[in-house]
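Progress narrative, Year 2. Work on GMC family oxidoreductase from Hymenobacter aerilatus advanced from sequence curation to structure prediction during this period.
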Amino acid sequence: MPEEEVAEEGVLNPLQPEIQDPLLKEIIEENDLQADPSRDPLEQPAPLPDPDEVVDCVVIGTGAGGAPLLARLAMAGLKVVALEAGPWHDPRKDFATDEKAQAFLFWNDERLSAGQDPLAFGRNNSGIGVGGSTLHYTAYTPRAQDDDFYLHRDFGVGVDWPFGYDELEPYYDELEQFLGISGPENYPWGPTRKHKYPLAPLPLNGAAQLMQRGCEQLGIKTSPAANAALSARYYQEGIGWREACQNRGFCQAGCNIGAKASMDVTFLPLAANHGADIRPNSYVTEIERDASGAVTGVVYEQNGITLRQKCRNLFLCAGAIETPRLLLLNELALTSGQVGRNFTAHTGVQVWGTFPEDVRPYKGIPGALISEDTHRPKDADFVGGYLLQSIGVMPVTFASQAARARKLWGQAGRDYMRNYNHIAGINILGDCLPHESNYMELAEEKDARGVAKPRIHFTAQENEKRMTAHAENIMRQIWEAAGATDIWAFPRYAHTIGTARMGLSGDDAVVNADGRAFDVPNLYICDNSVFPSALSVNPALTIMALSLRTADKFLEKAR
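Result:
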């Protein structure tokens, strides 16, 4: 019998027994990375770019506006670079099931709020990191309806989009299939779909079941909502398998298994697989131009180093605050006088009630049930419309809302929060009209980088007030019919929209129907800043559809 090999004391390289268990291997590897972060590939310093290299396109921002077009351009064979102000995240390690631990997902730089209804920023409407706001969005993906694009045609106010639903429909179709949208067999509102949702709807959580019960008694039609979270394991072309949603409910704290279709697990891997260079921690400070006014490159700060990237075309996809901020800072695309103007925010009042049933509002997809019966209400005394949606909520978020709206803190707050597991909510997502008093500007005050802070003015106008009152009345009726007590409303506005709108003429718009700036030939803007109107639905799916359309229009012109 051969002698056993024994690791003797003092031997420099003792034999290590091979670990067979794959789970144990993974745990050991994770512990090693925590002990020595330099071994983590996400922590490796990127090589400095060649300052003289000219790439075809630079894309600023990697959220719903930047990521889809980045993938499209890379797949067309163009040399593309994406600059993201935030870091790469590893969802399995970084996205804890904990609200407070996930504050790093939000754009936490100070933004100044002004007006009679100053807006809250951060978790409400903006994000940072590779994937942008999609890292913490709730994955609610209803389509805009065809009349959403024609407020002026139908009501004589606001402005119409330079194209209609038919232009975005093929992109809605493509996105729903690519992302793996979970939705109902037959969606009862809007144009009939050419393709069914690829996956069945996610389970209705407690709030959704109670909303469904109340709506049935009032004759309000409901449907399981469309969500960009997988109800079953799904194969994504060009990427591979993604796992099904576990209904943990922490969508706004980042999905740690990749079931939610955030850009970091969908379009960005696809872009990288086709050669896109994605550079995290890259905060753009300057946009360079030549004598003719065309963009020639950008200057950005990465990990304390100032770098320059030359380019033939620039795609600005930084959102409705950072996009106009960059334009104003660089005095770019200002001919129309509309940069920063036409700011809108979705009306989003929430109504909460307490139920005898065990609701557990932290469980399941937050927005599980929808109704668009209020899309154009017959008894409306306002322009446009809104949708109703059930809402789940995390405890810290809910406690802060109760404190702000009901002045509950200290012992009174603790007593009320004992009802948390019996709380359910409904909210709306409604249109908002542009108004001259609602805009974004640069403040004299500087941020930590020495850059002028954005100041956003917002005052709800008569139309928004009437819509909110109409919706609150209906939601209170729904909760009363469902058996709620202690019903109360939390006034709220969601999403940042407008500030660089598209249109048919450079006289009253910043970009044309293809997203190209009227007065800068190689500058394109693609995010929620180009929306001519807010639309009466959540914006994420429409931003992605615009992104793909903008890329296709650019490629057609390039060819």
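The first strand starts at residue 54 and ends at 60. The chain has twelve helices and 20 strands.
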